[in-house]
Design goal:
The chain is α/β, with parallel strands linked by helices and about 375 residues long. The protein has 13 helices and 13 strands. It comes from Candidatus Protofrankia californiensis. This is AFG1 family ATPase.
Length: about 375
Amino acid sequence: MAGEHVDVGRFAERFGDAARRSGFELDTAQVSVVDRLAQLGAEIPRWRGPFGRQPRGVYLWGPVGRGKSWLMNVFYETVPTDRKHRVHFYDFFRQFHAAYSRHRRKPQAVDFAVEELLDNFRLLCFDEFHVHDAGDAMLISRLFTSLFEKKITLLVTSNYPPDGLLPNPIYHHLFVPMIEKIERTMDVVELAGPRDYRGRSWSGGPRSRFETGVYVWPGRDAQLRDVGLETPSEEETTVLDVGDRRIRALAARDDLVWFDFFDVCDTARSTTDYLILAGRFTTWVISGLPRFEEVGRDARQRFANVVDILCDKDARLFLVAAAPLDEVLSGDGLPIDIGRIASRLSLLSAVSPGEPDRSWKETG
C-alpha cells in the first residue's frame, strides 16, 4: 500500500471494517478518534517534506480498556507508507538509551541516537507512553525535542494527559516545558468512552499468551498441578546472568522461568533487565506475591513494570499469591499505573480455594 493516496473517508472505513472482523462496532468515542486518525493517515503519504507542511501528530490518551492500542494498530497497518515505525515506548527507550550511550561523547548525542534508530522514518507510533522517573524525564525531553526538530510525526497513546506526565509534585515542574511543547506540537485527543473493553480479543483471533495465564492463591501444590505447574525443587534454584547483573531464579526450564517475588521485584532491577529476561523466557511464574501494603514502593513499581512488559511481549504469566487480587492490590502508596496493572491482571484466569481448575476461560 506504500505510496497509495487514501482519502479521509476511505481511511475511516477501514477502522469500521477491522472492528466488524473482530466482532464489534465502534462506539461513539472511538468514532470521534477515528475521524482524527483518518485525517492523519490521509496526510502522511501526501507529505513531501522537508518543504511541505508536516502532518500534525496526535497524542491519544484515556482510561485503560478503551481501545487506544487497537486503534493505533489499525492506523499503523492502514497508513500507506513504508517510512513508519511502531514500538512500545519501553522497548524504544531501552534502544534509545543504548544508542545514546554509544554517542554520549558527541556534542549532539541525542540527535545522533535518533538518526541511528529512526533514519528515514516519517511516522513514529509510541504505545503506552508515560513518564514517572525524574531521571528519565530529562532524557525523554531531549528525545522528543529531537523528534520534533527532525520533523518526525508522532502518534502516541497514553493513560495520562500531557499534564499528568511525571506526576510527582516534587519533580513535575521540571517536565512542564516539554508538556507545553507536546501540547503546542500535537493534537491532544481524549478517548474516554463509557465502555471498558478489557478481556475482549481485539484481533478477532485466538487469545494472546498473556490471557492464558493464571492467578493462583494461596498456591497449594495441588492447585499448581491443576494448572500444569510443578513446584520447583531446591536443586532447580539457579542464578541467571542479565547483562552485567545476576538474578536468582527458583527454576529455569526451557522457555519457563520461575521467580520468587522478592528476588525479581524487591532487589535493584531495571526495565532493561525485565526486557532481556522476557526475550529469553516466554512463560513466567512469580510466586510469593504479597499484599502490596506489605512491601515498599519500589517493589510495587517494579512489579507493575514486569506486568507491563510481559503483557506487551505476549508472555504467559502465572502469579502465585497470598490473597485474592483485589486484596493484593490494596493499600496506600499504590503504583501510579495501578489501574492499568489491575486491568491487565484481570485478563488472567483465577484459581482459588474450592475452585480447583479454572485455568482456561472461554473466549467470546
